[in-house]
Specification:
mainly beta; six-stranded mixed beta sheet; Methanol Dehydrogenase, Chain A; about 725 residues; Immunoglobulin-like; 3 domains; elongated; 60 strands
Amino acid sequence: MRSQGIVLLAALLVGMGVFLASCGSSSNSTTSAPPNSAPTITSQPVSQTVTAGQPATFSVIATGSAPLTYQWSMNGGTVGTNSNTFSISQTTTTENQAQINVKISNAAGSVTSGTVSLTVNAASVTPTITLQPASQTVTVGQPATFSVTATGTAPLTYQWFMNSAAVGTNSNTFTISQTTVADNQAQIHVTVTNSVGSVTSSNVTLTVNQAASTTSVLTYHNDNLRTGQNVNETTLTPANVTSATFGKLFALPVDGQVFAQPLYVSKVTVGTQVHNLLFVATEHDSVYAWDADTSSSTPIWQTSFINPSAGVTPIPCGEAAGTGDCVTITPEFGITSTPVIDSSTGTLYVVAGTKEVSGTTSYVYRLHALSITTGQEKFGGPVAIQASAGSVNLVPKQELQRPGLLLVNGVVYIGFGSHGDQVPFYGWLLGYNGSTLQQVMVFNAAPNGGASIWQSGCAPAADASGSIYFITGNGAFDANTGGPDYGDSIVKLNANGTVADYFTPSNQAALNSTDTDLGSSGLVLAPDQTGTFAHLLIGAGKQGVIYSVNRDNMGKFNATANQNIQSLAALTAGPDSGGLFGSPAFWNGNLYFSAWNDNVKAFQLNNGVLTMTSESAIQLAFPGATPSVSANGTSNGIVWIIQANVMNNTVLTTVPPAVLRAYDATNLANELYDSTQAAGGRDTAGDAVKFAVPTIANGKVYIGNSNQVTVYGLLP
């Protein structure tokens, strides 16, 4: 039995061995499972667009031998978890345009998805003001600018309010280009709006102070617009300009006739003293600097451009233009035009004409640049003025440098016309660099003859962009057919001497043939206007017609009808007993004219159209006058004129005194003062000169006469 058990155990063990061997041999079987497979992407991630703050989820679907692992990347950096999805729970705008992909791996390999983008749009946000407007304090006449900074979903729109009335444009700034006393204590705020809401700023205050007594008159008729207005006059008012309280203070003697308007610079340090300086130029070729507030026979300085012992003198009137021109000015021509002052460099520019005899006789115009503190020449000056245009040359003996000088953008512009229409003559405008005194521009208004630029002494005007404006006299005209001649025209000139635009009356041929030239008058560029026509100019001439012209589209020439805004026959007509021989003045939306044999007249300007509102009781004989205006902002306006009463086209041997007249600017029927009212000739001025312009500054009125400047003010 024992032996049988052993046999059975052995058989069992053998059987088990067979069974185990059978189980262990399966790895070598040809019917085994396939090897591991690498990942394959069957559905790529997709770009997402969300609004900031919203979630964004990216997903991928892949096959391959398990286990698969996932590594997400954003902008090259690892993100997310080991998942076939990647979520950003709250997106921000910093994640905008993020680049996202995923790498999928297993034991057999890996695969990377395509790169997709996350676009995160900013959420619509109502406006928020991050910087409130600030209160502003300015002096009357200065600009004032208010600004606001706001955030929120674009586009933002802005509506400004002043004293609850809508003002300004859709801008984060609001500017008043020229403040007035009426703007004082104005309340300013702005509402900022977008598609989802709006916000209103706090109210701020505009404070407009009266001007300090630092007025300067640096150029003809006060500014390059030729307005003739001083709106910073705080001393003289309609209440105190009467013969009881106002009159002649003193006279300053000079060596010749004063046809140039006196100029004034306040608070100039000369040596160790501070002066308000009055600058006076004479036909005897002298320039004076006077203390403007003191009666004296000794100027601060005097510079003369003649040297008789060396043969250098003013030009005798009998030698001008060959046959003489003593009906225009007697007895000599020296400095006829108004100089111009550059306050930034302390330089006075002036043109002087001289006769020079040294073996031969020559006639010369020179541009001088003088220090306003010493009268010494600057910038290597002076320079002789020469010009040519094609075959035409400037001949100093034939030409009269009558219009005042213009300084704009560092260039001094000098105009020329004729001596009493004695041919040949041409209208010239020349430009000289103010720092080097080198010529930079030459313009001939009519190479075929005529077209003087004289304007009864008015200087060319310039606007904020540097365009130059002037009026020409009788002469050839063919600009309408592409020619170069601009007789009897208002010309707009680019700084390089090319014509930008022009206006010529439809009856130009008649004006030319009857000596009724347009160019006897200067012009005014009105400060920017509201309404259809923002940029206006106003001028007239011997015909007595006032022309209102759109400076942005001047109208050129139309033989049938003028293409300007308005042609108003409101002044006396010449050429023999009427017409405008001077410049209008502008103040507070009004234009003031004084024509020959006419009343002084006021016109209100509204959207380019002039309407007469008042006139003086008296009429002025030849040549009329060029008004100036003093005011304290928009109040206390006074119109000042110098009445000459000199004969036209006559050699003057006996000259009457000039008469200073002052009118209420709101009603010219109200004459406030004239220099004949006081008893005993207390206020009698010096002898009159044609085309004289009063200068009003810091409580005083200065008028140029023959051989003196007469100074008026409040009586002590």
